[in-house]
Write a structure and sequence with these properties.
single chain, mainly alpha, 3-stranded mixed β-sheet, 10 helices, globular
Length: 317
């Protein structure tokens, strides 16, 4: 069933995480709960930032876009995964598969540069507080966000066009729960070294550029914090960066584990666990990481709720 003689298969079969129906039901409930928390958490974060004027700062401007990214790439993957856990027919069209991969790459690549922009924002806030609003102007923030999206769309277009030029005549069975580049490359009956090297080069470039920015920003931040005499001021400075640093660490470790290796070292079990982590778990964790450790977000939520209650009372009078 998985073998084809065509020069290009018309569709693919997403083998998924397991063939056991009992485990599939458990995974469906788990992934559905994770996705529900992801949608509520990220949409809630965006809504709070939009509604509370005190959060209209560069830091929360980037955070609202990060929430949109997390919500977007989780939505590109999770609904199809949930559908496949419920049905036996796990087909996805050739176009549908490459569309899913295209937008997933767009959002993942964009997140690299969002995280580095957020690190630079923290650097300016802590190391140059008097010039913060001048340096992190609305124009610069919008330029950084637009540039991040442009890089994401450009890289995704190049990768997907290269992959679409390959022929898939060996098999149409993807040993994964979504259309990712590594398991799809493994199905090609033509030479994939050029495309594989392109993906590795671009991934390395994204990681190096963004990590250098992050390390330089946090190196300067750490140096600046160590010069502070007040213990309470040090604690406040560390807490300002802790959420972002935790989010960065979780994201980069899972991405590096999955993509910075040749396709021959692809492991069905290990790579799928890592993929579940960065496609479903991280988008769920980010709003929790950035809100539960952040008094400003908690206070903003209280203000939004109070404002909502006051508006209801005024309407009822």
């Amino acid at each position: 069933m998985g073998r084809r003689n065509d020069t290009n298969v018309p569709d693919f079969i997403l083998l998924g995480l397991t063939e056991s129906e009992d485990i599939q039901q458990v995974l469906f409930m788990l992934f559905f709960l994770i996705y529900l928390i992801t949608v509520l958490g990220n949409a809630g974060m965006i809504l709070i930032i939009c509604l509370d004027i005190q959060l209209h700062t560069p830091m929360y401007f980037f955070l609202s876009h990060l929430s949109f990214l997390d919500l977007s790439y989780s939505t590109v993957i999770t609904p199809k995964t949930l559908e496949n856990l419920l049905i036996s027919d796990k087909y996805i069209s050739f176009t549908g598969c490459f569309t899913q991969m295209y937008f997933f790459i767009v959002f993942i690549v964009t997140e690299f540069y969002f995280l580095s922009s957020m690190a630079y924002d923290r650097y300016v806030a802590i190391c140059k507080p008097l010039h913060y609003h001048i340096v992190m102007s609305t124009r610069l923030c919008r330029t950084l966000v637009t540039g991040s999206y442009l890089i994401g769309f450009t890289e995704s277009t190049v990768i997907v066009l290269c992959m679409k030029s390959l022929h898939f005549c060996k098999s149409n069975v993807i040993y994964h729960f979504f259309c990712d580049s590594t398991p799809i490359l493994a199905l090609s009956c033509t030479d994939t070294h050029g495309t594989e090297n392109l993906i590795i080069i671009l991934t390395n470039l994204n990681i190096m550029v963004s990590l250098i920015t992050i390390f330089m920003s946090y190196g300067s931040i750490l140096s600046n914090i160590l010069k502070i005499n007040s213990t309470s001021a040090k604690r406040k400075a560390f807490s300002t960066c802790a959420s972002h640093f935790l989010g960065v660490t979780v994201f980069y470790v899972s991405i590096i584990f999955t993509y910075l290796k040749p396709k021959k070292s692809y492991s069905l079990g290990k790579d799928q666990v890592a993929s579940v982590f960065y496609t479903m778990v991280i988008p769920m964790l980010n709003p929790l990481i950035y809100s539960l450790r952040n008094k400003e977000v908690k206070n903003a939520l209280i203000r939004v709720i109070q404002k909502s209650k006051c508006s209801r009372q005024l309407k009822s009078q």
